[in-house]
């Protein structure tokens, strides 16, 4: 029986393990905390990323290693790759870990990006602000997620506060200053590439963030015209450049009909959770298939779907559990402000019925504000 090894034991590892089981694949997870939520559904090895004795034993038990957590040190990934198959490859992980390398690659692949400049010193921050202007966002090049490690500058005088917040990171990991893009829409393309080069994308997903954290997703994104083909072609170019194997997400802004690359995630992605119930093969199933060299499943959508992210704490499940084709996901994590503790996906035969279902759930949960942008996108 094949064994999938996963570095990181969060909800992504948990959903990978749940998708692996019906394929006859066992999962073994490594995390540095004993209460990692994937441990509720798969055996968990508790070890540090530099605990090479534990990693050696782990590598000996698995057929392939993959990631739930994109910030596993590239060094750890490279060390493992000398012992066991690692997908995606450590060099692809390394590019996605650094916003500078990532945006540079995007441009090389013909994907436009917001204007950006690297910032390593306080003086370079002033120079970058003079070139890029405000509004702008200062971001750590490495280790940021869910909008952490970012500072939004509205006026030039915000430079002091931005440096106070992130200056210490500049010396360690480097920063970049990005132009703030007044985008019309935010989209993501979830893509998968198999070992044999077979490449597929799911229909584009439209996303809404609140305070830098994903709040809602809607798929297939309505009214996208030619953007699907363009996003798919760009994702394919990226994947082939990186020799990528597995699922990844490409986060995009749409401005004046142009696609701008925000970042890529070298793993299954929150904006692809709708594929569990809304697509023929989910991102989790196809990731497992890809990294084990199995044929890929169909990435087509079964129906329009919307996903709610539950941040901080779970709402009452009952309204959702009573709704037709609505699906509850409790990650089994302790409630904590800002933490992703679960999600729900609602599917319906068409956009109108999806809007009706979402509206009813939102009213029952007091979540009208969270759902409002999705309802207006559904028309
Ligand atoms: P995650 O990895 O969880 O997606 P992150 O911490 O890497 O998040 P980003 O994706 O860079 O953060 O930013 C989070 C959100 O903030 C984006 O999805 C977008 O809504 C907004 N954002 C980021 N950069 C810009 C920008 N240059 N212009 C406008 N909005 C932006
Ligand atoms: Mg990110
Ligand atoms: Mg992001």
Automatic annotation (TrEMBL):
The ATP-grasp domain extends over: 103-292
Keywords from the named record: ATP-binding, Ligase, Nucleotide-binding, Purine biosynthesis
Q: Do you know which Gene3D superfamilies this protein is assigned to?
A: 3.40.50.20, ATP-grasp fold, A domain (3.30.1490.20), ATP-grasp fold, B domain (3.30.470.20)
Recorded catalytic activity of this chain's protein: 5-amino-1-(5-phospho-beta-D-ribosyl)imidazole + hydrogencarbonate + ATP = 5-carboxyamino-1-(5-phospho-D-ribosyl)imidazole + ADP + phosphate + 2 H(+)
A GO cellular component term found in this entry reads: cytosol
| Pathway in which the depicted protein is active | Purine metabolism; IMP biosynthesis via de novo pathway; 5-amino-1-(5-phospho-D-ribosyl)imidazole-4-carboxylate from 5-amino-1-(5-phospho-D-ribosyl)imidazole (N5-CAIR route): step 1/2
Q: Where would one find the signal peptide in this protein?
A: none
InterPro entries tied to this protein:
ATP-grasp (IPR011761), ATP-grasp_carboxylate-amine (IPR003135), ATP_grasp_subdomain_1 (IPR013815), PreATP-grasp_dom_sf (IPR016185), PurK (IPR005875), PurK_C (IPR040686), PurT/PurK_preATP-grasp (IPR054350), Rudment_hybrid_motif (IPR011054)
EC annotation from Swiss-Prot or TrEMBL = 6.3.4.18
Q: Name one GO biological process term.
A: 'de novo' IMP biosynthetic process
Amino-acid positions noted as binding ATP in the UniProt annotation, renumbered to this chain:
99, 139, 144-150, 178-181, 186, 209, 262-263
Classify the source by domain of life: Bacteria
User: Which GO terms of the molecular function aspect are on file?
Assistant: 5-(carboxyamino)imidazole ribonucleotide synthase activity; ATP binding; metal ion binding; phosphoribosylaminoimidazole carboxylase activity
UniProt xrefs under PANTHER family: PHOSPHORIBOSYLAMINOIMIDAZOLE CARBOXYLASE, PURINE BIOSYNTHESIS PROTEIN 6/7, PUR6/7
| Quaternary organization | Homodimer.
Q: Which family does it belong to?
A: Belongs to the PurK/PurT family.
Purpose of the protein:
Catalyzes the ATP-dependent conversion of 5-aminoimidazole ribonucleotide (AIR) and HCO(3)- to N5-carboxyaminoimidazole ribonucleotide (N5-CAIR).
Name assigned to this protein: N5-carboxyaminoimidazole ribonucleotide synthase
- Record organism: Rhodanobacter thiooxydans
Q: What is the lineage of its organism?
A: Bacteria, Pseudomonadati, Pseudomonadota, Gammaproteobacteria, Lysobacterales
